[in-house]
Each structure stands twice: as C-alpha cells, then as structure tokens.
Amino acid sequence: MEVISLIIKIVLCVFSLFLVIVVLLQSDESGSVGAGTAKKARGLDALLVKLTKFAAVAFMLLAVTLVVLQRFF
Hints:
It is built from two helices and no strands. It has helices at 2-25, 38-72. It is elongated, with a radius of gyration of 17 Å.
C-alpha cells in the first residue's frame, strides 16, 4: 500500500505544478488583445480554461484518494 501512496503523491505533485502553470498562462480578462490575435487568444484561453478545470478536478480527486488511503489502510 505504501507504493500506491508514493505513486499518488508523485502524481499529485505533477498535477499541482501543472495546475499552477496553466493558471499562470491564462490571460487577464481586463487586458486588451490586438485585432489580429483576438481569435487565437480566445481559442488558447478556452483551452487553458478546460485544462485548468481538468487539473483542478484531478488534483482534488487525488488528494481525497490519498487521504482515504492513508486514513483507512
């Protein structure tokens, strides 16, 4: 069970770094974007929002799983 706990801890660290990077890459909503890059910026922002949601949900699930494993096993 310790091996599984270690693997979850490593994956949790990777997801936390990924979550920080994705959040920092998102553009500011109040910032103005040039006319030529507005469409690309919106597409990239939409992708970053989806990646942020995925990373946040995965982070929470891994954290809860780790707590349950350490508490009951």
